[in-house]
Amino acid sequence: MELLTRRYRTTQKVIGPLLFVERATRISIGEMVRIILSEGDERLGQVIEVSEEHAVIQMLE
User: Fold this and answer.
1) CA-to-CA distance for 11 and 43, rounded, in angstroms?
2) Parallel, antiparallel, or unpaired: how do β-strands 11-15 and 42-50 relate?
3) Which of 9, 40, 45, 48 holds its CA 20 to 30 A away from the CA of 27?
4) Whole-prediction pTM value?
């Protein structure tokens, strides 16, 4: 099964386990995401809020 991949490089800020991404289009609440950190580490996250300005992702790991 092939998964849909989109890359966003518009992180606005990180507050605790919350990642704020600007101009995230075609994203839905509840969607599971893979987050690749600047050091190359990967984290799992879930979209918990979507608006016209940003999406909020809660990092789970």
Assistant:
1) 15
2) unpaired
3) 40
4) 0.81
* Per-residue pLDDT tens digits for 14-52: 899 999 999 888 889 999 998 888 888 899 999 999 998
* Cα angle for residues 55, 20, 58 (degrees, 5° grid): 80
| The pLDDT of residue 61 is above 80 | no
Q: Supply 23's token pair.
A: 């101009």
Nearest-angstrom CA–CA distance, 29 and 39: 27
Split at pLDDT 50, 70, 90, the class of 59 is very high
Q: Which CATH class is domain 11-59?
A: mainly beta
**Cβ–Cβ under 8 Å, residues 21 and 14:** no
